[in-house]
Design a protein that fits this description.
14% strand; two-stranded antiparallel sheet; elongated; Arc Repressor Mutant, subunit A; alpha+beta
Amino acid sequence: MNDILSRLFFAGFIRLHILHHAAEEAICGVDIVAELGRHGYRLSPGTIYPALHELEKAGYLTVRTSVVAGKVRKYYAATSKGRKALKQARKKLHELADEVLQPPKSRKRAKPNR
């Protein structure tokens, strides 16, 4: 898949992954890059940090600063708003997966309202 399609489709998946992991425990950018790498995403700091900042600005994440091995690290955790958004996103994700992953012949098509 080319880079444009990757960005269009996977940007939402990445944000959802971040929110999921931040709801489980506080995460830092380096750790989330490694975690998402285990899922096949190859992300740079130029991708992950803007997503973290965007989620923080939207009120889905909070950030705290800590010094680890002499380096300042920012740890992100889901807020109550973020947890609520994650719960809603999971419902939509299940709905989407059920529809997209069904064999084409077994799908029932909705008839248009007239």
